[in-house]
């Protein structure tokens, strides 16, 4: 079976999918898609993913027809259901082996969309970074501040969950287990996007510790190289215009 991942490493959901593929030892071909330049809306890409979003996965089985999947969480669950390394896959998403834990993972994945992903700031951070200096503070006050304020309740919820679930664990996880799950990965990739440009989470120390631990994983670090480089550039050139202490 051949797998092709259509993605871009500046995209949070794309990184989550690629990190998981590496964690599971899944072989794949990587095809970079210029989503910022509109490539997801081209005719050729719509044939891969009619949703016109990244990531997208094309699966070419040896004995059946090729098919494609969109949406990062659907792709990650598919990986966990089909990976050869069943023991590792079930640590990330146990599926039928532990339906209660799977349901709890599903709960946090669903929560993520409306409470963390919804307040993605990186698009406006890049607009701030690339625009004229006279407009940078306006972008911070009118576009970024409402997203920062909107994200704060979600961070508070994560803080409470991590504190309750990890009373004595040095490397905390969202459900309190020894190994992170798909919920940890999806949410951490989202928050790492702003950590890369200099945001810290001092008011949420359990969130900070949890994110730091995930960021130290081998495959997380490897896949996040591009966003780290982009974050350093933004911080060095435009960090003074960002309210980096918003969560400090």
Distance N to C terminus: 47 Å
Main beta sheet strand tally, sense and closure: 4 strands, mixed
The SSE order reads: EHEHEEHHHHHHHHH
Question: How would the global form be characterised?
Answer: globular
- The low-confidence parts are none
Structural Rg: 18 Å
Count of domain modules: 2
Looking at the structure, the CATH topology of the largest domain is: Glutathione S-transferase Yfyf (Class Pi), Chain A, domain 2
Mean of pLDDT? 96
Count of alpha/pi helices: 11
Question: What is the CATH architecture assignment of the largest domain?
Answer: Up-down Bundle
| Strand order in the largest sheet | 2-1-3-4
How does the helix and strand content classify structurally?
alpha+beta
CATH class of the largest domain: Mainly Alpha
Describe this structure in words.
The chain is α+β, with helices and mostly antiparallel strands. The protein folds into 2 domains: 2-92, Glutaredoxin (3-Layer(aba) Sandwich); 98-241, Glutathione S-transferase Yfyf (Class Pi), Chain A, domain 2 (Up-down Bundle), CATH 1.20.1050.10. The chain is 56% helix and 8% strand. The chain is built from 11 helices and 4 strands; from the N terminus they run E-H-E-H-E-E-H-H-H-H-H-H-H-H-H. Strands 2-1-3-4 form a 4-stranded mixed beta sheet, covered by helices on one side. Helix 1 (12-23) links the parallel strand 1 (2-7) and strand 2 (29-32). The termini are far apart.
């Amino acid at each position: 079976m051949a797998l092709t991942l259509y993605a871009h490493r500046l995209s949070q959901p794309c990184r989550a999918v690629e990190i998981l593929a590496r964690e599971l030892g899944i072989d794949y071909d990587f095809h970079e898609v210029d989503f910022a330049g509109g490539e997801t809306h081209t005719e050729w890409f719509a044939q891969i993913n009619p949703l016109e979003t990244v990531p997208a996965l094309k699966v070419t089985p040896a004995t059946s027809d090729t098919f494609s999947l969109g949406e990062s969480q659907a792709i990650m669950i598919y990986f966990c259901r089909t990976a050869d390394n069943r023991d590792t896959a079930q640590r990330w998403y146990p599926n039928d082996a532990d339906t209660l834990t799977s349901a709890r993972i599903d709960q946090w994945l669903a929560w993520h969309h409306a409470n963390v992903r919804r307040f993605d700031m990186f698009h406006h951070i890049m607009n701030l970074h690339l625009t004229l200096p006279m407009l940078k503070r306006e972008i911070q006050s009118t576009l970024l501040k409402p997203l920062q304020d909107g994200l704060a309740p979600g961070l508070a919820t994560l803080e409470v969950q991590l504190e309750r679930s990890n009373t004595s664990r040095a490397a905390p996880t969202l459900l309190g287990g020894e190994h992170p799950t798909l919920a940890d990965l999806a949410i951490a990739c989202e928050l790492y996007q702003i950590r890369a440009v200099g945001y810290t989470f001092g008011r949420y120390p359990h969130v900070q510790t949890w994110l730091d631990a995930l960021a130290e994983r081998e495959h997380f670090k490897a896949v996040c190289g591009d966003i780290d480089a982009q974050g350093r550039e933004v911080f060095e050139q435009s960090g003074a215009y960002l309210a980096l202490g918003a969560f400090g």
